[in-house]
Design goal:
Layout (H helix, E strand, L loop, with lengths): L13 H17 L19 H24 L1 H36 L4 H5 L3 H5 L1 H9 L10 H21 L1 H18 L15 H21 L1 H4 L2 H22 L1 H4 L20 H17 L13 H8 L1 H21 L4 H30 L3 H6 L4
Helix pairs in contact: 1-2, 1-14, 1-15, 2-3, 2-7, 2-9, 3-7, 3-15, 7-8, 7-9, 8-9, 11-13, 14-16, 15-16
Length: 384
């Protein structure tokens, strides 16, 4: 079948690194309850948040990287590379799960605060470790703040067939994904969680944002260029973003909420994150289109030194994300057990972001050293 998708240039798109790094920082800050610093994150100014950005960019990147492999080396090799990446993320998730549970258990006993085990959904593990861990291996058991990676694993594992179809019929594949999204919302499809409930990120709904990211990478952006450059999008999109800002702030500032008629914010309260409410999708799509319009691939700001730490965190996204889960719990514990002043909130926020950034720079350096030929190998090279 004819390949109809349009592959992006082979050069690295640093916009993705920048935005993914920002998403990792924002997720860390948002995972710290009662933290004044997380007021700077996206979730306070509109319907979508850093999770939407993370999933979209993940779909974009997966298509950007593996579509070319699938075209040049065949479906089997491209598909197995995707499965291998899903397996790597799964191993990281299990490692994170075990260490995270141990971290919560040890610190809750040390500070004699058993409520932490209930607050972070690990009390069941303490009561029945074997059964709970078995459900953790199947991604059904997830402590608080560990919902994104299981979603990512499942989407990556299912993506080989989706990518095969998208390379041949990108618009039809996106339409099928949207139909699945609508069906999941209508029929209330979701996966079960352990010990009760369903997945916080409904994969039948969130898959649409992942597939949309892939479609955007494989020609969707060029197809949408007339819309992205249009004055209608600029005016209507800006108006919608302003409306989303008003509704979101009204939900966080009681005095502002009292100024609005009660019927106005009702359809958006609470913000349906589990099933990816349509108004979240519209909000994110408008943002994605406007970012594409005003931040081209060759934007000079991508070379500014101030953005280098964020770009580096985006390039080492998996390690930075996992470390952020650990650090967010420690930051929360410090605010609960030591001090919850604004200055302490600033300290734990800045310290966590700094440690995540240092890890990103270390991983980048470590990978570069591993790829470099050793001095012994260079010396032993035959001379002709």
């Amino acid at each position: 079948m004819e390949i109809r998708a349009v592959l992006p240039p082979k050069v690295r798109d640093y916009r993705l690194d920048l935005l993914r790094g920002f998403a990792n920082w924002a997720i860390y800050l948002d995972h710290i309850p009662n933290n004044a610093v997380n007021w700077i994150t996206q979730r306070n100014f509109g319907f979508s948040d850093a999770a939407d950005m993370f999933v979209f960019i993940s779909g974009y990147t997966a298509s950007f990287v593996y579509a070319r492999i699938m075209i040049e080396r065949g479906f089997v090799i491209g598909g197995t590379r995707l499965i291998k990446r899903a397996w790597q993320i799964y191993v990281a998730h299990i490692f994170l799960l075990v260490i995270y549970i141990a971290e919560i258990g040890v610190l809750s006993h040390r500070y004699r605060d058993p409520n932490l085990e209930n607050e972070f959904n690990v009390a069941g593990f303490m009561a029945d470790p074997a059964n709970t861990l078995a459900h953790g291996l199947t991604l059904a058991f997830k402590p608080v703040n560990m919902d994104v990676l299981p979603l990512y694993i499942l989407l990556m594992a299912c993506f080989p067939l989706v990518l095969w179809a998208m390379l041949r019929r990108p618009n039809l594949t996106l339409a099928a994904s949207f139909l699945l999204y609508l069906s999941a919302r209508h029929f209330d499809w979701n996966l079960a969680s352990y010990p009760a409930g369903t997945w916080y990120f409904n994969p039948f709904c969130w898959q649409f944002l992942f597939v949309f990211g892939g479609w955007f990478a494989l020609g969707g952006a060029s197809q949408s260029r007339s819309v992205i450059r249009s004055r209608a999008l600029l005016v209507a999109g800006s108006a919608y973003l302003a409306f989303a800002l008003l509704i979101t702030l009204a939900g966080r500032i009681p005095e502002l909420g009292q100024c609005l008629p009660t019927w106005l914010p009702e359809p958006f309260t609470p913000n349906d994150k589990t099933n990816l409410a349509p108004y979240r999708i519209v909000h994110f799509v408008v943002l994605a289109f406007l970012v594409t319009r005003f931040m081209p691939r060759d934007w000079a700001g991508l070379k500014w030194p101030v953005f280098r730490p964020m770009i580096k965190c985006g390039q080492q996204s998996l390690e930075v994300f996992c470390s952020g889960i650990f650090l967010a719990f420690i930051a929360h514990l410090l605010l609960v057990e030591v001090s919850d002043t604004v200055w302490m909130q600033i300290v734990v926020s800045v310290a966590g972001v700094t440690l995540m950034t240092l890890l990103a720079y270390y991983r980048s350096w470590s990978k570069r050293v591993d790829k470099a030929p050793s001095a012994k190998a260079v010396t032993a090279a035959p001379v002709h």
